[in-house]
């Protein structure tokens, strides 16, 4: 009932890179899929790592289901991101040079991990996601982002992620001293658009 650690890589080898990007795929997606997106980001000199969710899903139900209903998968997924971060730190790359990119279920997981482990990171992009749980448990979120830039983008409406949760997440991140940018597209649908990629490059991977 837990994820097997399976990290796919692209870009520079960890021992040759000064920066690293962790990419978190969505439900039914794959590490290889989201790694291919890195070709459109300004990360040519980064090591790029993408953990693969066992059976293609990080947790079974909606991200706004009661947390206990998504266990033990959810805790294992958060631990998987932690292990991916540790592998980067162990290679000598500092936290302020670690970046994140998540889409959909992967965006929710990225934001939940970051809010639970706030510190000065390089930056993060979360496309269509918010912190996890039927209710927001603010006590879970600790630390200081020290002005880490975080870009949130979503569609309104989105079938999986209510825009209210995106706004609530942005507010929590700001309270924790993140430099948050947000962009809401009307009726765009559940996908990533070209402008979001350009904004990610402008705001985060500059």
From TrEMBL:
InterPro entries: AB_hydrolase_fold, LYPA1-2/EST-like, PLipase/COase/thioEstase. Residues 13-203 form the Phospholipase/carboxylesterase/thioesterase domain. Transmembrane segments: none annotated. One of its GO terms (molecular function) is hydrolase activity. Keywords: Hydrolase. It comes from the Bacteria. The keyword Hydrolase applies. SUPFAM superfamilies: alpha/beta-Hydrolases. Belongs to the AB hydrolase superfamily. AB hydrolase 2 family. PANTHER family: LYSOPHOSPHOLIPASE-LIKE PROTEIN 1 (PTHR10655:SF17), LYSOPHOSPHOLIPASE-RELATED (PTHR10655). This is Phospholipase/carboxylesterase. The lineage of its organism: Bacteria, Pseudomonadati, Bacteroidota, Flavobacteriia, Flavobacteriales.
